[in-house]
TrEMBL record:
Keyword field: Signal
Keyword Signal: yes
Signal peptide region: 1-20
Protein name, entry field: Uncharacterized protein
Species lineage: Bacteria, Bacillati, Actinomycetota, Actinomycetes, Streptosporangiales
Organism of this sequence: Sphaerimonospora thailandensis
């Protein structure tokens, strides 16, 4: 009986030690990898190529972290007959620090034209989704941007409704 008690106590102590050692403050959690300008540009290239290949069908599921926000913005763009034209040009770029309840990442300032030729200036925000960078919303041709953007206030230019009538 005493032998079983001693083995049980050793198991409990071993498990307790493993738990304490694994949760001790001296062991720091590895921070998620940061989004870089290069990785943000790569995400933008993937989004542009995806739209060119298959249009906007399944766009938000394929490219966006914020699927709900992406769907709302995409629905509004389609209602306004706004479709992406030629690939945009990256004009500016900045890191976006994480603060309070906002995830950090990288923002690219884009200039381009919609399919009907209207100029837009948008902010394309890329953040980490688990272990890889992805577009937060991804709908880059609508002239939308971040609130409190590191690219400055009033940076974006929103195209007008393109539908006839």
């Amino acid at each position: 009986m005493q032998r079983h008690y001693r083995r049980g106590a050793c198991i409990i102590l071993s498990v307790t030690f493993a738990f304490v050692a694994g949760c001790s403050p001296s062991r720091k959690a590895t921070p998620p990898p940061a989004v870089t300008e290069e990785s943000a540009k790569k995400v933008l290239a993937e989004v542009i190529a995806g739209v060119a290949q298959k249009g906007v069908a399944g766009f938000c599921k394929d490219f966006a972290i914020g699927i709900g926000a992406c769907s709302s913005i995409l629905d509004q763009a389609l209602e306004d007959c706004l479709m992406p034209g030629p690939p945009p040009v990256i004009k500016r770029s900045a890191a976006v620090p994480a603060i309070e309840n906002r995830q950090g990442g990288w923002v690219l300032g884009l200039e381009g034209h919609t399919l009907d030729g209207q100029r837009y200036v948008s902010e394309f925000f890329v953040a980490m989704d688990k272990d890889r960078p992805r577009a937060h919303v991804g709908v880059y041709w609508t002239g939308l941007g971040l609130g409190d953007s590191p690219l400055g206030p009033d940076y974006t230019v929103v195209p007008q409704r393109a539908c006839q009538g």
